[in-house]
Amino acid sequence: MNDGTLRPARTNGAHVDVQTASGPQGEGSTQPTVLHSYRRPQWVLARFVARRTARSAILWGAVFGLYVYASTVGFIDLAPTPAGRQPFLAALAGNTGLKAMFGVPYRIDTVGGFVTWRATGVMSLVGALWGLLVATRVTRGEEAAGRWEPFLAGRTTHRRATAQALTGLACALLLMLAIATAATAAVGTRSDVGFGLGPSFLFALAITAGAAEFIVVGTLTAQIMPIRARAASLAAGVFGVAFLLRAIADIAPHAHWLVYLSPLGWVEQVRALSDPQPIWLLPIGVFVAAGAAGTIWLAGRRDLGASTWADKDAKEPHTGLLGSQPLLA
Predict the structure, then answer these.
(1) Between 281-299 and 158-188, two packed helices, what is the crossing angle to 10 degrees?
(2) What secondary structure letter does DSSP report for 41?
(3) What is the DSSP letter of 33?
(4) Each residue's pLDDT expressed in tens, for the chain with a length of 329 residues
(5) 39 phi and psi angles, rounded to 5 deg
(6) Gyration radius from the chain CA atoms
(7) What CA–CA distances, in Å, run from 179 to 60, 64, 134?
(8) What share of the chain is helix, strand, coil (3-state, %, to 5)?
(9) Pick from 207, 172, 201, 209: nearest CA to 184
(10) Alpha carbon distance 329, 322 (integer Å)
(11) Strand pairing partners for 10?
(12) Which long-range contacts (CB under 8 A, 24 or more apart) does 153-157 make?
């Protein structure tokens, strides 16, 4: 039987167990050293969240790419000449319902303007819904299911764990962004389209910005509400207000200033493939950074399983009709 010894070491920042064993040949002889390398434990939760969300991010990134392709081909197939497309485009631009859904038409007589109008309006909404649902699931949902407890039992804090969850969600979002950029650039290689790599990347940033905004909204409401359903409902309420502001601004010209109050309205203003306005990425970035910082700060002010808005075990009694016999009757 070998009498082994185990001592810890560090190699390239990763934890390594170095094991040496003395053999039966003599006291001075040893067997070859065995190294056991482990991943950094500080990023376990980030990897866990990234794996849990990667599949849906890939799926929706592919959906975004297919929608861009369909919008591009649909514009080209409307008519062989710009004059032939004009009646169709005029009917689309005058439709109030389409304005509420897609936004104000801007230069939709060009392929870039049409794709920007069609895809940004829809994909920003779909991405926002995906973001708030997945964010509440991997934060409040996983915590309520008891999966956060083993992580927090180690050498970490609630704030660090929340920062790791945000990092994992950011990795999934970057995966979606890469797929959307590649798909847009691939469509743009057609001679009758002509989207460059730079505009394609800006366009992909725009259509995934809604997901980024409502990921932080979802993680923030997950700190406020005690269960996932309520956190998702509160985040959906924020989404509804943002969409309503943008829709009113697009429908009513005299109320167009409301678009500047909506996170979804900022996305609409980027206009990546028609008249690029990358300055609108600045308020989006500030919104995302503020939401992430607020999430981490609130996470440090509560215990595991608790929330900023405490849950009640029972509802308040309603005794208004018990004051007299007529009221009771």
Answers:
(1) 160
(2) G
(3) P
(4) 444 444 444 444 445 444 444 445 545 555 556 555 555 556 788 888 899 899 999 999 999 999 999 988 888 888 777 788 888 888 887 888 888 888 888 888 888 889 999 888 899 999 999 999 999 999 888 888 877 777 777 677 888 888 999 999 999 999 999 999 999 999 989 888 888 899 999 999 999 999 999 999 999 999 998 888 999 999 999 999 999 999 999 898 888 899 999 999 999 999 988 889 999 999 999 999 999 999 999 988 876 666 666 665 456 677 777 777 787 77
(5) -75, 160
(6) 27
(7) 9, 8, 19
(8) 65, 5, 25
(9) 201
(10) 9
(11) 15
(12) 154/41, 155/41, 156/42, 156/45, 157/300
| Amino acid at residue number 277 | Q
Question: d(Cα 214, Cα 162) in Å, to the nearest integer?
Answer: 16
What separation, in Å, do the N-terminal and C-terminal C-alpha atoms of the chain show?
Answer: 87
Distance (Å, rounded) from C-alpha 163 to C-alpha 293?
9
What are the distances in angstroms from CA 298 to CA 131, 286, 307? Answer: 19, 18, 9
**Of the candidates 171, 206, 200, 203, the residue with the CA atom closest to the CA atom of residue 185:** 200
305: its two tokens: 């399983």
**Cβ–Cβ < 8 Å for 206, 87:** no
- With both helix axes pointing from N to C terminus, report the angle between 111-136 and 44-78 in degrees, rounded to the nearest 10: 150
Cα distances (angstroms) measured from residue 292 to each of 73, 175, 195: 38, 19, 33
CA distances from 110 to 63, 71, 80, 244 (A): 23, 12, 13, 28
Q: How far apart are CA 109 and CA 83, in angstroms?
A: 10
* 8-state DSSP, 314: S
Show the tokens assigned to 235.
């985040």
Look at residues 68, 114, 112 and name the one whose alpha carbon lies nearest to residue 92.
Answer: 114
Please state, in angstroms and rounded to a whole number, the distance separating the CA atoms of residues 329 and 187. 71
Question: Which structure tokens are listed for 223?
Answer: 């700190």
Report yes or no on whether pTM surpasses 0.85.
Answer: no
